[in-house]
Amino acid sequence: MKAVGWSLENSFGALPDLLFTPLAPTPVTRPTLVALNAPLAKDLGLDFSTLSEQEQAELFTGNRLPEGAQPLAQAYAGHQFGHFTMLGDGRAIVLGEQTTPSGARVDIQFKGSGRTPYSRNGDGRAALGPMLREYIISEAMAALGIPTTRSLAVAATGEWVYRETPEPGAILTRVAASHLRVGTFQYVAMRQDLSALAKLTQYALARHYPERLGDANPALSLLEAVIERQLALIVEWMRVGFIHGVMNTDNMAISGETIDYGPCAFMDAYHRETVFSSIDHAGRYAYGNQPTIAKWNLARLAEALLPLMDAEQNRAVALAEAAISDFVPRYNALWLRMMGDKFGLEGEEEGDAALIRELLDWMQDEGADFTRTFHGLRDGLPLDGELGQALSLTGWRQRWLARLQRNAGGLAAGQAVMARVNPVVIPRNHRVEEALEAASKEGDLGPMQALLAALAQPYAEGPELARYQESPKPDERVYQTFCGT
Ligand SMILES: Nc1ncnc2c1ncn2[C@@H]1O[C@H](COP(=O)(O)OP(=O)(O)OP(=O)(O)O)[C@@H](O)[C@H]1O
Ligand SMILES: [Mg+2]
Questions:
Q1: How sure is the predictor about 231, in pLDDT bands with cuts at 50, 70 and 90?
Q2: Which H or E element spans position 98?
Q3: Residue 250 CA, ligand 2 centroid: distance in Å
Q4: What are the structural domain ranges in the chain?
């Protein structure tokens, strides 16, 4: 294949054998390219313009592997809705790691590329709609400035996959800091291979936390590092109203990136108990539960690492508990700072938390749109419109304005920080579904391209964005999202 700039290596393949199975993607019958992320390709040091469209389609379905690829499927385990299972890439293949021009090492992975030894009863394939969904939402998350895996391309396979109805098959090319999951550690711990666990720990530190490599207790240090990244990540999800939907331990990345955009969604009306996923009947992964679940998942990581932390189990448990015990107060402090920014509050005052909670409670009672309300606060100062009138009734508006005046930089400083952290455009479900419907049912990619363009600058204002800012009308409302796996 003509030079496109691949520099693939596979350091993961040097890890102990139990962690993977070398395996090539299953060829597909009639590949076509559906989406290619040119700016991301550039950031990766890749240029596909030397390839014909057919060659690109062959490349992004795995019919022709890029030079240097050493494909493999990774093994992992996971607690799915609280139940432990041995899993692994049942429909994914890592091709290798690309070193970017800025020196970062990232995995290049196909999702939907055929059966593997970890497929269990699955067909190893993915449908076009869900892969485009992952493309749209992961790219929106990146533009929002939130750590995430990225989407380089989606290619259709020309084959049908059978879900509730036959759907066109597709493969997503995903780019990730790595595909190490909490579940990867659980898998090795379950296999009781201490030497492999130690090697995996060193590998994770080298790849994601090199500054900690010399630490006296590597397993404890890794746990602390992952806790810190996950705290930061969950607070970011809460900032934009993102609901992951399947926070199983196999869907929590050691790198701190958001991974696996299954039935995820952005909340329209603010409500802490919001759930979209069709399979989350008990609301385990509801918006407001995400920090609690993150802590639960991290406790599973801690358990997996225990045998490395100290040969004496009681001492190991004490170390792990100490690392995780202040998760809630740390989260609360980060959440308060994040919310302070959303409300434009400089510094911290005693009454801030109450002021913030009062408005959130009001939003929940009123069914107010999360993104639009903050956008309204941000742009409506001194809030003399409709929103301001409603908030004047409770006296909230007056108290908030008085608090903003106490900012060192006054109202203007508050407004500046609010403009930085309160998005104007998010990938609203009804717009995402509309774009997916056009793409996968009618082959019309126009609505998706327009949506992607709006999502690329989520903090910018502009009259052309109005249709992406609107809350769904009653008949447009999406109540459930499906994995479509
Ligand atoms: N169609 C399928 N065929 C085989 N295995 C599947 C299929 N769909 C999902 N799986 C496997 O089931 C497990 C749970 O699926 P889940 O939806 O969390 O992951 P995923 O979306 O396939 O992948 P990832 O977490 O890498 O984004 C994973 O091990 C996944 O590989
Ligand atoms: Mg998954």
A1: very high
A2: strand 92-99
A3: 6
A4: 11-178, 183-333
**111: annotated binding-site residue?**
yes
Query: What distance, in Å, lies between the first and last C-alpha atoms of the chain?
Result: 32
Q: What is the DSSP letter of 314?
A: H
90 is in an annotated binding site: yes
Q: How far is the CA of 194 from the centre of ligand 2 (A)?
A: 25
Question: How many Cβ atoms sit within 10 Å of the Cβ of residue 485?
Answer: 18
User: CB within 6 Å of ligand 1 — which residues?
Assistant: 87-92, 111, 119, 122-125, 246, 250-251, 259-260, 262, 483, 485
Question: Which residue CA neighbors atom 25 of ligand 1 most closely?
Answer: 260
379 labelled as ligand-binding?
A: no
Helical H segments across 394-428, by residue range: 396-405, 410-421
Model ipTM value: 0.99
Active-site positions read: 250
268-281 per-position pLDDT tens digit: 999 999 999 999 99
pLDDT of residue 381: 77
Is 129's pLDDT higher than 90? yes
Do the beta carbons of residue 359 and residue 396 sit within 8 Å? yes
Segment 352-368, tens digit of pLDDT: 999 999 999 999 999 99
